Amino acid sequence: MFVDENIRKRAELRENSTVEEAIISLESTALRVALVVGSNKQLIGVVTDGDIRRGFIKGCSLGSPVSQVLNSEPVTVDKGASNLEIHVLMEKHKIQHLPVVDKSMRVIGLFVLENKATSNFRSNRVVIMAGGKGIRMRPLTENTPKPMVLIAGKPMLEHIMGRFKEQGFSKFTICVNYLAESIREYFTDGSNWDIEIKYITEELPLGTAGSIRNLRELEDLPFIVTNGDIISEINMGDLIDYHVEQRAVATMAIRPYELRNQFGVVETNGVEISAIIEKPIYRSHISTGVYVFEPDVLKLLPDTDVIQMPELFDYLRIQGHRTLAYHVQDQWIDLAKQEDIEETNRIIVKSMNGKL
Q1: How many CA atoms lie within 13 A of 250 on its CB side?
Q2: Strand bridging mode 323-327 / 230-232
Q3: Is residue 316 over pLDDT 90?
Q4: Which of 147, 159, 217, 258 registers the highest number of CB atoms within 10 A of its CB?
Q5: Are 99 and 110 in contact (CB under 8 A)?
Q6: What is the pLDDT of residue 339?
Q7: CA 237 to chain CA mean position, Å
Q8: pTM higher than 0.85
């Protein structure tokens, strides 16, 4: 589809912009591409989340110039090209976005594919942590396990697996504990959704990483672990490909997070005021609750019954194994509280085809 001009302009960056500004642009427009233009609107290059990840691997930081990560030779199309020509060109180069330029290389439009979901089949198993009690979501979870709370008429867990299925995944293992039977009875073996579902029952809570110790019949492939209360548009195939290319043992998908101080911060040198910063914003990265592991990690788990994901990553890193971060800017919702459910329900009902 052709992008609305106002949205496209929001996706434009100056050549002196920073990597952080590119990330903010990618998040705010959800186009998965930022256009770097000169003073005369001439296209200098494009930036995707993949370009930013590769830049971080090479040592770039949030404050680095965007010129250090951009693709300076993007595929473009001339004004007046037909939809058929555009689709053929995008298919040929396997791209999801195509800037439209005039003879002077000034940007006059942008074409993007409406969905980035891939139809390529993925044999990798998806392990979903669905055993929590959802205490912060009560009273909704007093008689219903959190993953079965309805969003737009379907259980949260059905939305999660549906997005994986759209991207070619069909093998799932669900780790259950609290009110486990309601999950088993609803999804059974997954055949009604044309997927395969296996279950791991935690007799006692094992932590966010402890359940994977009980995986059986695991294919000799990297596997995904995701929390059962996360709905996102992360491209899981790209995540796995990155993990494999970088030869990691464990990879964590992370995203930017901003925390605004509601007060003015006063910096002092003894009793002297050295600076006053009004409502500063602290920027960091947080885990999305989505991970990729090599099968060998099951043999590397520390000898403890309960283990959380941060502990597992720290343990693997200390033991000398390669643990990596995968930067994402995709839409992501952590369904932690009842208000999150209500807002997500509103978004999904409003949007077409029940997609974010």
Answers
A1: 25
A2: unpaired
A3: yes
A4: 147
A5: yes
A6: 61
A7: 11
A8: no
Domain 5-112, CATH: 3.10.580.10
User: Coil, strand or helix: which one is 235?
Assistant: coil
Best CA proximity match to 341, nearest among 129, 153, 67:
153
Arch. (CATH architecture) of 122-354: Alpha-Beta Complex (3.90)
Distances (CA, A) of 116 to 113, 234, 336: 7, 10, 27
CB 169 within 8 A of CB 122: yes
Q: Is the peptide bond before 295 cis (omega within 30 degrees of 0)?
A: no
How far is the CA of 308 from the CAs of 73, 256, 312, in angstroms?
43, 22, 6
Q: 3-class DSSP state for residue 260?
A: strand
Q: Report the C-alpha gap between 10 and 277 in whole angstroms.
A: 28
Sign of dihedral through CA atoms 163, 352, 116, 326? negative
- Rounded Cα–Cα distance for residues 22 and 7 (Å): 15
With b for 16 or more beta-carbon neighbours within 10 A and e for fewer, the 231-244 pattern comes to: bbbbbbbbbbebbe
| Residue 20: other Cβ atoms inside 10 A | 16
Residue 301 neighbours by CB distance under 10 Å? 15
Spatial distance between the Cα atoms of 339 and 197, rounded to a whole number of angstroms: 30
Alpha-carbon 344 to chain mean position: 16
Q: What is the DSSP letter of 101?
A: E
Nearest CA to 155 out of 164, 145, 165, 163 is that of 145
What's the rounded Cα separation, in Å, for the pair 330 and 335? 16
| Residue 345 phi, psi dihedral angles, 5° rounding | -60, -40
Query: Could you tell me the residue ranges of all domains in the chain?
Result: 5-112, 122-354
Q: β-strands 196-201, 169-176: how paired?
A: parallel
126, 164 Cβ separation under 8 angstroms: yes
218 φ/ψ angles, rounded to the nearest 5 degrees: -80, 130
What are the pLDDT digits (tens) for 38-75? 888 889 999 988 889 888 888 888 889 998 999 998 88
Q: Is 340 exposed, middle or buried (0-12, 13-18, 19+ CB in 10 A)?
A: middle
